[in-house]
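Hey,

Quick one before I head out. I ran the complex with FE2/S2 (inorganic) cluster overnight. Inputs first:
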Amino acid sequence: MSTVTIQIGPHKKSVPFTGELSLSSITAPYGLPMPCGGHHTCGKCKVKAFGSLSPLTSEEERLLTPQEIADGVRMACSAVATGDCTVILPDKDHRQGEVLLDGTQAQVEAEGWGIAVDIGTTTIAVYACHGGKIVRGAGELNAQSVHGADVITRIGAKRHEELHQIVVSQLEELFVRALGSDAAPADVKKIVITGNTTMLHFLAGYDPSPIAVSPFTPQSLFGETMPASRYFTAYENAELYLPPCISAYVGADMVCAMTASHMTETGGTVLLADIGTNGEMGLYHNGKLYTCSTAAGPALEGACIHMGMAAAPGAIDRVTLGQDRELLWHTIGEQPPKGLCGSGLISLMARLVETGQLDETGALEDPEEAPDDSGEDCVPIGDSGVFLTQQDVRQVQLAKAAICAGILTMLEECSLSAGDVDTFYICGGFGSYIDPHAAAVIGLFPKELENKVKVLGNAAGSGAVMMLSQLYRDTAAKLREEAKLIELSTSPVFMEQYIEQMCFES
Ligand code: FES
């Protein structure tokens, strides 16, 4: 029998075990973020560990700096306890991820204290508001990530009760952090929590499994008010509002984003896309609202990419061309390059298309052999030590084809072409950092939309703040009632476009 000692700040706990135990199973109850779902690509699941442990894996050697390795840092998804050892978890404050809190200048008429929340699959953003104005924000990676990076993996984990507990406890902590010393839980009068349909199921404690299988019928589409104490006992004086979802894959987050954009009030033809693992889109034209969703996969967020990582220091976020058309790179925080985040990936691929290093079919011209013994064809990014593999290109092709085909199918449904769109809003974490030109070059959306892009930041969070006021809850109800859902999975137009959009236009 061996013992692992878990240490968090001054607290220690001993857990006996026999044989071997993965560090991820040790850290799981503590909500250590694992954004890539344990696929060894994000490098976010760092802990310090000493004692009897498995040797460093090639992924750890790649994603950890020499200093971190010298300090005993390990990746929880890679390292295994083989005997007595100590695992030191980062303090909660250090587990904070890159959470998009900007783009939320929303302000409404509302009295007293309120809390607005956007539960994203990857991150959670909480805003404490007073008199309808944001006073303070608090954000963190979604602690449910230990059970998978995307909704399908999390549903497949068949642990909805546990996932319910995880999100409720995490929100309670974030509420306190956002309120600070300005207000107590009993002062809060209204709480609005938005998210995609699956996230709201976990919050409400419903089994989301019907969302993952045809005919994709959720247990609830929400759009309801209840006492907040149903889930958050300390908030006895608050009502909780969960905004309406449109379908299993067009969630309340999309309804909030559309509300925040005022897209149905401006008169022109307006397109809105929340580009993430699940691309959700809305089109308003001639007084009618259309929505659809398409599974883009996690590639655009840097997951499932050989050297992909979250948008953290050391991630290449921009690639440009030098005088001799060589690849020049920039990293977040000007740190030594460690990998590629989503915006860097799009930027790099655009440069490869422009220089002809990536042909129309997505094949790399004159590839080199990857330096990590994987035997893969790759293209190195200048002298950064970071490279892009042929397999990575294929992943991005699938994602960009899904998004672009979704947009084109929706436009075709209204007998429109991309040139007819007046404004193209892009929102969400990934969408807020991409370079619209690079995105158009690789065909993430039609070229005609490039000059119509307006980046909205966390529009779902803005919409949640706005729904502290009844006025915007009425808007949300109307949007749900009026939205026509375009089912892409059965659309022949979508299938045709999907195949066509897989190519690159040089
Ligand atoms: S969860 Fe370990 S690297 Fe992503």
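Residues 275 and 431 are 5 Å apart (CA to CA).

Talk tomorrow,
K.
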